[in-house]
Design a protein that fits this description.
Elements (H helix, E strand, L loop, with lengths): L4 H6 L16 H14 L7 E5 L2 H21 L6 H8 L3 E4 H11 L11 E2 L2 H20 L5 H10 L7 H16 L4 H7 L3 H23 L2 E2 L1 H12 L2 H10 L2 E4 L5 H11 L1
Parallel strand pairs: 1-2, 1-5, 3-4
Amino acid sequence: MEFNREQKEALNIDKNVALSAGAGSGKTRVLTERYLRLLESGIDVAQVVAITFTDKAALEMKNRIREQIVLRVEKGEKTVDWQKALDKLEKANISTIHSFCSNIVKENAALLGMDFNFKIINDVDSKEFLKDTAAEVLKNYFSNEEYSEEVQLLNNLFENKYKEEKFIEEILKIRVDILEKGLAFEEIIKNAAASIEKFVLKIIYEINEIYREYKLKRDMLDYTDLQTRAAELLGMRELREAYKKRYKRIMVDEFQDSATRCVVKSYAA
């Protein structure tokens, strides 16, 4: 395979590399080759973690790696026991960040005071529940005379469209921003300058508390929880060192959010 200068630099397995490239630029091809070179260096399939953004991307990467290993087996290359690598590939650690974090949390659930049989609420169900909860919470606040001034300000701000789905989306978007930045709702509310800010944050806080209780009663975690808990576990020095011994190399296909960065930074600390 031919690679340009930047791609060749990214294939240097003796150093950490951050690769920024757009769609169709050959990024997955480079990651596939980097994976193969790690195997050629003597690292076992089980010692490499490759994290992708979607299950589809994980499957694509695994298939590309398989194709290249099969070619090496057919050519009779002896640099590595490629047949052994091929046999192990089905159980290779090539997955989404959520799957990777889920495995870490399940293996160490007791350290978090959790049952390892916890359930995972998917994005669709999570968003639906939050949307319904937001609608109910807003209805209660907007019908409460105590908040009539704040309600009027919001009416003016959103041009009397607060009941529409767009406003609920905005509220939930602010919630996600707060969670991704790892901020505490109580602290933000305390430091909010204007009454309208406090009001909006109070609404978001209540939505979040209802959602938290819902998950707690059902022994559930959502995708954000998985990453937060995994980062918490990897923040424990002894546990982190144990995972570093297990996984010699980690590759991340896409950093889509700060939660993913947090997990990787915790691992690399």
